[in-house]
């Protein structure tokens, strides 16, 4: 390929360096009306204005991105003069492109070899190297190849658009994560405040009981103290009287001897300690934490399954405690993350099961449309889904008054009475999913299969067209009992 040089007048290294120094960083041409910013970078005035028009919110230097003032940058007269002098020496008027020359022959590059994809001068064209090659004018080749590149730009621009969309999704997800964190933090604080309030009330109640017992025991001891004090007073009077009689003359002493003897021989019962006068410390402190925890169970609800909001279809609204789901009929602004269903109003439980037996009950009420059951972890979350065991779904549904097991083909279920609550029981080891009515424990339907991966609880509150199916699916809490082996 013929090497290209810049202006006709000179192709030396010093000329190339000077040309680079006099080139605008935006258009890569020799400066035209150069302006200088405070950061010392220079640009063509028109190039800088065009750059700023494309980014009206960020008036910054195209090179170093430093913020610029709102005042128009001054024209650099020195740089303008040097640039114009440089162009005149090249035989070009200001604003014209310098003619590119063939380095070996110092001739203008006017032709293009389509076989070697090289630009040629007329001397190169006549050389043995390009003999018999397809050669066309430079302008025609540039036009054709530019059109070809424009076609190649289509997929690139499409990919760039996808990348911008992905970036926007990441930014939206960052905002969503922040909101999730704030809401979750608030919920955690509220739950702990409830527990702390319970503990504060329980502490106050037990301290009040302690103070009440203290007062009762104090009154008991006070009454005994008063009784002993009266006996002390009576006995002291008797002792004084006898001492006084002993101190009198003999005639009076003997005259009153019988009475004095009777007073000296009065009996006093030995004082006894008051029974039950001490605080029953064991009653207040014995197994204190256990008894408080046992009482705390009264304000705590436990559900064996909670819902995963990151899987919920955008129309679904979940309760704060993640135990009920409603089709609100309106799209919520949530990220389209890989775990989320995007075609059906589905949501999964937050925990999957790979072994053991698990059961939960779901209150369906009078809903006209719902689907319940389990699904395997690897089911597709995007697009249309085959809701059958072959597709990884083991479910039953209620639609238009009919109960159906979602088999292939569908199995219609005959029930004696409408269901208000459905019990779902999963036995991973036995490969069994069974449904029953917890009101009377009558079986509804049982699937038998081989489960090779985690199974997740599945919920679908159904369509809610014009508000005809607004009720929630609610996972029922279970009663928590404390088992004490010492009383077994």
UniProtKB/TrEMBL annotation:
Residues 285-475 form the B30.2/SPRY domain. Residues 97-138 form the B box-type domain. Keywords: Metal-binding, Zinc, Zinc-finger. The keyword Glycoprotein does not apply. InterPro entries: B30.2/SPRY, B30.2/SPRY_sf, Butyrophylin_SPRY, ConA-like_dom_sf, PRY, SPRY_dom, TRIM/RBCC, Znf-RING_euk. Residues 24-65 form the RING-type domain. It comes from Megalops atlanticus (Tarpon). This is Uncharacterized protein. GO terms for molecular function: zinc ion binding.
């Amino acid at each position: 390929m013929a090497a290209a040089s810049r202006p006709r007048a000179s192709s030396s290294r010093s000329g190339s360096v000077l040309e680079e120094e006099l080139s605008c960083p935006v258009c890569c041409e020799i400066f035209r009306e150069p302006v200088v910013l405070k950061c010392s970078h220079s640009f063509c005035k028109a190039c800088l204005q065009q750059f700023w028009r494309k980014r009206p919110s960020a008036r910054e230097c195209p090179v170093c991105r430093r913020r610029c003032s709102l005042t128009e940058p001054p024209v650099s007269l020195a740089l303008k003069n040097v640039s114009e002098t440089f162009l005149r020496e090249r035989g070009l008027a200001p604003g014209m492109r310098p003619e590119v020359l063939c380095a070996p022959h110092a001739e203008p590059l006017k032709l293009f070899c389509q076989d070697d994809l090289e630009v040629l001068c007329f001397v190169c064209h006549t050389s043995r190297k390009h003999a018999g090659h397809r050669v066309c004018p430079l302008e025609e080749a540039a036009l054709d190849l530019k059109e070809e590149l424009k076609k190649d730009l289509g997929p690139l621009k499409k990919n760039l658009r996808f990348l911008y969309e992905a970036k926007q999704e990441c930014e939206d997800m960052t905002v969503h994560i922040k909101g999730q964190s704030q809401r979750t933090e608030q919920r955690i604080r509220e739950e702990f405040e409830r527990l702390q309030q319970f503990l504060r009330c329980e502490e106050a109640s037990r301290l009040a009981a302690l103070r009440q017992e203290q007062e009762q025991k104090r009154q008991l001891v006070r009454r005994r103290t008063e009784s002993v004090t009266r006996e002390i007073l009576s006995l002291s009077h008797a002792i004084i009287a006898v001492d006084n009689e002993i101190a009198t003359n003999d005639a009076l002493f003997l005259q009153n001897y019988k009475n004095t003897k009777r007073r000296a021989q009065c009996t006093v019962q030995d004082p006894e300690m008051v029974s039950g006068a001490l605080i029953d410390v064991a009653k207040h402190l014995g197994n204190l934490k256990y008894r408080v925890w046992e009482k705390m169970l009264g304000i705590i609800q436990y559900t064996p399954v909670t819902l995963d909001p990151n899987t919920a279809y955008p129309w679904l609204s979940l309760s704060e405690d993640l135990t009920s789901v409603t089709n609100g009929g309106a799209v919520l602004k949530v990220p389209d993350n890989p775990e989320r269903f995007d075609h059906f109003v589905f949501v999964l439980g937050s925990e999957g099961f790979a072994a053991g037996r698990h059961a939960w009950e779901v209150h369906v009420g009078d809903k006209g449309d719902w689907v319940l059951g389990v699904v395997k972890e690897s089911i597709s979350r995007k697009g249309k889904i085959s809701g059958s065991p072959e597709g990884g779904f083991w479910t039953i549904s209620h639609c238009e008054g009919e109960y159906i097991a979602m088999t292939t083909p569908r199995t219609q279920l005959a029930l004696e009475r409408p269901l208000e609550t459905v019990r779902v029981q999963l036995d991973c080891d036995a490969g069994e999913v069974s449904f029953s009515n917890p009101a009377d424990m009558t079986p509804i339907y049982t699937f038998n299969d081989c489960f090779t991966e985690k199974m997740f609880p599945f919920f679908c509150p159904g369509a809610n067209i014009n508000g005809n199916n607004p009720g929630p699916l609610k996972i029922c809490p279970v009663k928590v009992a404390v088992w004490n082996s010492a009383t077994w």
